[in-house]
Each structure stands twice: as structure tokens, then as C-alpha cells.
């Protein structure tokens, strides 16, 4: 397998109407598989959330990470994703989440640390254009002078790698701390949570609406790597809907690490 | 019993376990690390099950390493870090 470059691939964009948390989990699984099997060209997917959610990492303990009672009280669904990494607190409009489904050839020969930074170099450039001085902080974070902006996670499946990232746009810190059991050590990781009511590195440092930040990011990706507008195929959506029901919405998957 | 260890340059490694007649039981590894394939998690738990509460870090790390196939990828976690988290759980040290 030869190492490939971004421009060796015909990148596709998927940015659809808001979808449920479990469907997002399933779409990551299905689209990674489709790219690995060569049935789909490498793809950038921007997520829109239909409902609030806590998304825990593949190996996080449900009871250690989430206050289930608080989540129910706030009407927040708890889901487990396919990748490792830490918990994300999502409300529609409070974060920017994207997935990159790429052939493994794109990061062939790179260390994990290099591969994480490689997949988000375009984002650092987009943030720079928006006036934010941001940089990669190993292992898997994007940070800035205004605090941590994003966390990334990768999964390798067949011939494909999934790289997905959640960026904090404007998060209600009090609600997040109510639902997530974040230790004091982790607090310093999540920006200036203890001092601020909101974790809003993207909103406060750009002064732009979330949609405008996304628009700029997509434009930067398109300019650097090429990008065609695409949508989900009916069979992809069908597979994802089935998986959302049988796997990602099941108590067995959510409680796999109790 | 619960132990946590933030691996230097890595991620948080957490162990929950019980003791049955001086042996480790109901061992659960968790954390925000990266591990592939994900089935390796349960293999690691099984490898620690039944080990003596007196097993030292080197023995615990070796037990973990022994069950990891050549295809297993770890990022932000290591057999040694898992062993430290187990010892912390057994010593009832405060969370890291």
C-alpha cells in the first residue's frame, strides 16, 4: 500500500438535517465500513444534532462518567460511540462535530500522534482564518489561547480510518457538570469550566454564529483538499437505522463497560 | 474498589475490582484511552481476574501483555499503566 495524499482522493461532503444521537453513532460505523470496502469515496460528514446527548467513549465506564439521574432530569440521551476518548456533552447548536472517513493509505507510516494532527491540519488553518490561534495538543486535542477547543478520536476498520472530532462552540458548563462526573484533574482539560458559566472558545473567539464557523471550515477543506457535495445513500441510511436500533440503542452496548 | 492513574503523556486509566479470598475479581478496566480491536478490553479484564492481591506491578503488567496479540494497538494506555491503576485500587489510594 502506497501512502496517498488528500488530493489523490475525491472527497465528498455529507451535511444533512439533524439526526438522533444513536443514528449518528451508527452512521460512523456504516460509513467507515463503506469507505473501507471501496463503495464510498472518502467523505467529510458534518453532524447536526436532533436532540441533546452525552456521548461516552468506547472504553468509558457508564456509571463512573455519567450521572444517569441528572441526564434523565435534563432529558439527555446517553450513547456510547465506537471510538475511545472522553465524554462529550452535546446540545443542538452547542458544538461542531465532524467525521472524516478516509482510506488508511492517507496516514500510512505516520505515528498515531502524527495521524491525529494530520487529519485536523485543515481545521487549524480554518481557525487561523477566523482569527483563532489554535494548535494540536497531543494526544488528541485542539487547543487555543482561549482554552481547549476540541477532542478527536480515531478508529481503524478494514482499509479505512474514522477520525471524528467534537468542538466546543458554546456549552452550558453548569449543565455539563451536572450530567458528567468529571474529576478535578479533568476539569482543567475542559477549558476554564470552574471559573466560567459557559465553555465557548469558538463563539467567544470568533464572534460568529455556529453556521458561519462551519461554512468557513467547509470552505477551507474544499480549497485545500477538494470537496464535492454529496448525501447519504438510501442503503447507507437503511443500514444505519437498523444498527441504531439493534446495537447503538441497546442497553447491552451502552452498558458494555458498566 | 477503585483506582485511577493518569498515564504521563497518555490518558486516564481506571480499574474497578473486588477481592474474593485475596484474589482479584469482577475486574473492569475503563478510561478515555484508545485500544484496538475493542475486544482487547475484555481480554485484559480476564487476564487480571484471579490474580493475587499481592501481585506486584511487574507481574500484573506481564499478565496483561501476555494476552495482547501482535495486532493490538494501544494509544494513551500501556500494560504498565494498567498495573499501576490495579495497585492503586488495591491500596485504596485516593483517585489520581
Q: Per DSSP, what share of the residues of chain B sits in E-state strands of 2 or more residues?
A: 25-35%
Q: What characteristic shape of chain A results from the CA principal axes?
A: globular
The span between the termini of chain A is 39 Å
**Order of neighbouring strands in the sheet with most strands of chain B:** 1-2-3
What is the beta-strand fraction of chain A?
15-25%
Low-confidence stretches of chain A: none
* Structural class by secondary-structure content of chain B: alpha+beta
Count of all domains of chain A? 1
Please give a structural write-up.
- The complex is a heterodimer of chains A (258) and B (96).
- Chain A is of the alpha+beta class and 258 residues long.
- Chain A has one domain (6-254): BirA Bifunctional Protein, domain 2 (2-Layer Sandwich).
- Chain A is 37% helix and 25% strand.
- Chain A contains eleven helices and 13 strands.
- In chain A, helix 1 (21-36) links the parallel strand 1 and strand 2.
- Chain A starts with 11 loop residues before the first strand and ends with a helix.
- The mean pLDDT of chain A is 94.
- Chain B is of the alpha+beta class and 96 residues long.
- Chain B contains three helices and five strands.
- Chain B has helices at residues 40-48, 57-67, 79-91, and strands at 2-6, 12-20, 23-31, 34-36, 73-75.
- The model of chain B has no long low-confidence stretch (mean pLDDT 95).
- Chains A and B meet through strand 9 of A and strand 2, strand 3 and strand 4 of B.
Entry keywords:
heterodimer, A: 258 residues, alpha+beta, BirA Bifunctional Protein, domain 2, 8-stranded mixed sheet, 3-stranded mixed sheet, 11 helices, B: 96 residues, Enolase-like, domain 1, 3-stranded antiparallel sheet, 3 helices, globular
Amino acid at each position: 500500500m502506497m501512502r496517498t495524499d488528500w488530493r489523490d482522493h475525491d472527497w465528498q461532503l455529507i451535511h444533512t438535517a439533524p439526526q438522533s444521537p444513536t443514528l449518528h453513532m451508527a452512521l460512523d460505523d456504516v460509513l467507515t465500513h463503506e469507505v473501507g470496502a471501496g463503495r464510498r469515496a472518502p467523505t467529510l460528514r458534518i453532524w447536526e444534532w436532533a436532540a441533546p446527548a452525552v456521548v461516552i467513549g468506547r472504553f468509558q465506564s457508564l456509571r463512573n462518567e455519567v450521572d444517569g439521574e441528572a441526564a434523565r432530569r435534563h432529558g439527555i440521551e446517553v450513547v456510547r460511540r465506537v471510538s475511545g476518548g472522553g465524554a462529550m456533552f452535546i446540545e443542538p447548536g452547542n458544538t461542531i462535530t465532524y467525521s472524516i472517513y478516509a482510506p488508511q493509505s492517507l496516514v500510512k507510516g505516520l505515528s498515531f500522534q502524527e495521524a491525529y494532527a494530520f487529519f485536523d491540519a485543515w481545521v487549524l488553518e480554518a481557525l487561523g482564518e477566523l482569527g483563532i490561534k489554535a494548535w494540536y495538543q497531543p494526544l488528541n486535542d485542539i487547543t487555543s489561547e482561549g482554552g481547549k477547543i476540541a477532542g478527536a478520536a480515531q478508529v481503524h476498520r478494514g482499509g479505512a480510518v474514522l477520525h471524528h472530532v467534537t468542538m466546543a462552540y458554546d456549552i452550558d458548563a453548569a449543565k455539563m457538570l451536572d450530567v458528567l462526573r468529571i474529576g478535578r484533574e479533568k476539569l482543567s482539560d475542559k477549558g476554564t469550566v470552574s471559573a466560567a458559566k459557559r465553555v465557548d472558545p469558538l463563539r467567544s473567539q470568533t464572534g460568529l454564529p455556529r453556521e458561519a464557523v462551519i461554512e468557513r471550515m467547509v470552505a477551507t477543506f474544499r480549497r485545500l483538499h477538494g470537496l464535492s457535495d454529496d448525501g447519504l445513500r438510501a442503503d447507507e441510511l437503511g443500514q444505519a437505522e437498523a444498527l441504531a436500533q439493534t446495537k447503538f440503542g441497546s442497553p447491552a452496548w451502552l452498558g458494555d463497560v458498566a | 474498589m477503585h483506582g485511577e492513574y493518569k498515564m504521563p503523556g497518555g490518558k486516564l486509566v481506571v480499574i474497578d475490582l473486588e477481592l474474593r479470598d485475596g484474589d482479584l475479581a469482577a475486574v473492569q478496566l475503563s478510561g478515555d484511552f484508545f485500544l484496538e480491536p475493542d475486544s482487547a478490553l475484555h481480554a485484559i479484564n480476564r487476564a487480571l481476574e484471579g490474580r493475587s492481591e499481592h501481585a506486584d506491578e511487574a507481574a500484573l503488567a506481564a499478565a496483561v501483555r501476555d494476552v495482547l496479540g501482535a495486532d493490538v494497538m494501544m494509544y494513551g494506555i500501556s500494560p504498565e499503566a494498567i498495573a499501576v491503576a490495579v495497585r492503586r485500587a488495591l491500596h485504596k489510594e485516593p483517585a489520581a
